[in-house]
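Why do we care about 3D structure at all? Because function follows from shape, and shape follows, mostly, from sequence. That is the central idea of this module. The next example makes it concrete: a single protein chain, its amino acid sequence, and then its structure expressed as C-alpha cells.
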Amino acid sequence: MKKLHKGADYFISLIGTNPLPVLITVLKNCNKDTKIFLVHTVKSENNIGTEKVAHNLANVIFERIPEVDIKFLPCDKSDTRKIESCVNQLIEDIQKEELEHKKRLVLDYSSGTKAMSAIFAERLFNTKKYNLDIIIS
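And the structure:
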C-alpha cells in the first residue's frame, strides 16, 4: 500500500502530562527525516512541569524511529508574552534552514495548556510568509 504523504518535515508538539496521544500522532506523521520539537513546561513551585514527560517520550520515539532529530523547547504554561517568545524562537530555528521547496509542518497542540495551544496555533497558522505547509492537529 502506498503512503499518502512522506511525513512531516517539522513536527511540533505541546507536551502535557499524558504522552500517549502525542506518541500516536508522532508515529502517524513522522519519519527519520522529521525534525521534532517537544515543547514542555518546566517544573516550578506552581507547576508540575512536563520536561520529564518530554524526555521519556523522546526515549520511546527513539526506539521506534532511531535516527529522528528531537529538540526540547521549554515554554511557560500561561504567560502570553513568554509563550509568544517561545513560538518566535521556534520559527527562527526553522527559518535558519533553507526552505527551497515547501515544507510540511504539523502542530499537535492537543496536550498543551489553553494559552499555549491558542497562541501556538494562531501564530503558526498565520505564518504564511514562510515556505511552510502548516497542518494543525
